[in-house]
Structures are given as structure tokens and as C-alpha cells.
Amino acid sequence: MGKRVGLIGDPVVHSVSPVFQQAAFDALAIAARYEAWHTPAAALAERVAGLRAPDVLGANVTVPHKQAVVPLLDRLHPGAARAGAVNTIVNEDGRLIGYNTDIAGFLDALRLEGGVDPGGAWAVVIGAGGAARAVVIALVDAGVARLRVLNRTLARARALAVELADGRVEAAALEPERAATLLAGADLVVNCTTVGMRHSAEEHALPVPVEALPVGAMAVDLVANPLVTPFLAAAAARGCRTLGGLPMLVRQGAAAFTLWTGVPAPVPVMMAAAYRAMGAVG
Question: Which of 66, 133, 148, 251 is labelled catalytic?
Fold first, then answer.
């Protein structure tokens, strides 16, 4: 009997995770099926409880549940505990262990696909949710010189900065009229919100006004679908280097695959499947 694993989120219709994860299982002849599990907040506890079944390897967790899922688990890996967010759940004989593979996935993509080492950089992170928490930790650990967290709700950005207790991290309210000042001189700008995501209410919107982006900065969007988001298109037109969210999505997924199976993930297979699913060559 085959195993099951899936993606927990709301929405999940936009995700290519089922495509590249299934490609990995098939490439290694592992009898497992990766599914998309649309899960509204009211159904989250029941969905997570179902992961304890013996035929379930675990799950990936995406927006908006990366923080909400934490109290439903039996134990957190230190990285997930530090981030206060979980994107991967592993079923260990009925006990659910939470991991955060976004941290390593983001850094790997930034360095390998983006060609950028953030050590010594002045970085701005837009958003303060589960994905942003992982990115901030990744950048702090990589040695950024300074980091500003921007969020529509200032209290959430401040809470993240306070929890990290690192003098390099500061918080500010994301106010469009002040965006140019808040981003001035930044080497790296990372959108960690869902603004620009396909099938979302803000599919055609920008997380910050285009004129706020520093010319020549590296602009990264964690949104993986579409490949070129409005933010990335605006950044490129502004003269910025850009990196989309698909490489990070695949690399965090590869780390999750290894946690579920105990074997190295076939990253080239996964990356190629992801780009094919997006209608691109990669």
C-alpha cells in the first residue's frame, strides 16, 4: 500500500508542489502520492490530526497556516521553534514533528539561483508572517549588516524584531507614502507577502510602489506563481536584479522530501518538473 503526503493551505490551487514532489517520488520509485489538501482555518485541526494515520508520511504547510499549525504538533525542530513557524510536518509513528525548511531553502536559492551572498548586505523584508520569519532568520544567520521588517500592521513587525533580539533587525509600518524612504539604499528587498500571487485577491497588486525600489538592488519575490510577478516585473523595469519564488519553493520542498523519506531529493528532477508545470524551460 502506498503512502500519502500533501500540501495544507488555503488556497492551494496555485501551487506546483504536487507536481514536483510527485516527480521526485516517481523518479526514485517510492510508492507515495502527493496531494493538494485545501484546508480552511476551521478545518485545520482535523486535517493535522489526520496526518497521524500510518499511511501518511507528513505534509507541507503553506499560507495562511504556518504559525497556526504550531500548537497542533507534538514537537518542533529547533529551527521551527526559533522561527515560530512550520512548513513541513513529519509523521514519526503517530507523533507529528514540525520543521522549517524555508530557512535553508531561501538561502540556497538566493545563493545558487540568485548568485547573491547576503553577508554584509542592507536588507528589507516585506511582511511579518511565517515565510517572513524564516527569511529574516536566514538573513540574520547569513550575516546581513542591517535588516528592516516592513509590515502593514506595525505590531507584527515589531514582535518579530523583538523575538529575534538582534540589534541589526528593526521594524517599521509599511506606508506607501513613506516606502521610498524606508527602502532607500537597500541592497536586497524580499517580498514575503502573498501580494501578486495568482488566484489571490491582490493578484495584480504591488507590495510597495515601484518608485520605492532602489535602482540596482536585488529584488526577491517568494511568490512562485506566476513566475514573473508584478513586483518582479516592476523591479526589472526599475533596473533591479530579480529572483522569483520557484527556486526557493523547490529547494525547501527538496529538504522536506528528505525528511519524509530519509533519502536525498533529486533536486534537478524537481526543478525541471516545476518549471515545466509553469510553462517555462528551466
Answer: 66
